[in-house]
Amino acid sequence: MTHHFPLRVYYEDTDLAGIVYYANYLKFIERARTEMVRERGVDQVALKEQGGIVFAVRHIEADYLSPARFDDELVVETSVEAVTGVRIVLSQVVRRGGTELFAAKVTLVALTETGQPARLPANIRLSLH
Fold this sequence. Notes:
This protein has 129 residues and is of the alpha+beta class. A hairpin with a 3-residue loop joins strand 3 and strand 4. Strands 1-3-4-5-2 form a five-stranded antiparallel β-sheet. The protein has one domain (3-128): Hotdog Thioesterase (Thiol Ester Dehydrase, Chain A, Roll). It starts with a strand and ends with a helix. The mean pLDDT is 95. The longest helix has 18 residues, at 22-39. It has three helices and five strands, in the order E-H-H-E-E-E-E-H.
């Protein structure tokens, strides 16, 4: 199931050329991932407080395909590709209308608060499938 996260480009998101600064796409997809996980019933605060588990980006592949500009209405589409005991692989696409502007494949890992790999609880693995 694909999650859709709408957003608007603000002036602060753009560079001197008036296009979205490249690093801001990473912020956009981070927000979309957070909302997708929340909508699937995963409370990241409780996961940290009760299980000592946090998510971290392990790897990202990004393609910048076409620029977004100030006041554009965008949608970030997030799809889960794989979930293992400690890893979540996501596909994320930023679109303006039917035009794909940015695409990323993101690998998240579950870690303890000390940075060691942690096994995701079964209920969370199931909710993310």
